Amino acid sequence: MVDVSGKDATERRAVAACTVEMKAETLEMLLKGRMTKGDVFQVARVAGIMAAKRTPTLIPLCHP
Questions:
Q1: What is the pTM of this model?
Q2: Residue 31, number of CB atoms within 10 A of its CB
Q3: Residue 33 — left, alpha, or beta (φ > 0 → left; ψ -120 to 50 → alpha)?
Q4: Where are the domains of the chain?
Q5: Which of 16, 24, 29, 55 is surrounded by the most beta carbons within 10 Å?
Q6: Structure confidence by residue, pLDDT tens digits, 9-64
């Protein structure tokens, strides 16, 4: 393992994108907030934050 304690802190940014395919009816329900399981966009935001926080455990040699 490499000692990184002497390195200066740096600010980094990552950007991700995806494509989701669905029926037109599903998209309409989504945009109108009629999904039976709640706010899909808020769940996606929270999932993204949770995934970002786990980066050091998922990507080798990535230090928190």
A1: 0.59
A2: 11
A3: left
A4: 24-58
A5: 29
A6: 888 887 888 899 999 999 999 999 899 988 999 999 999 899 889 988 988 877 76
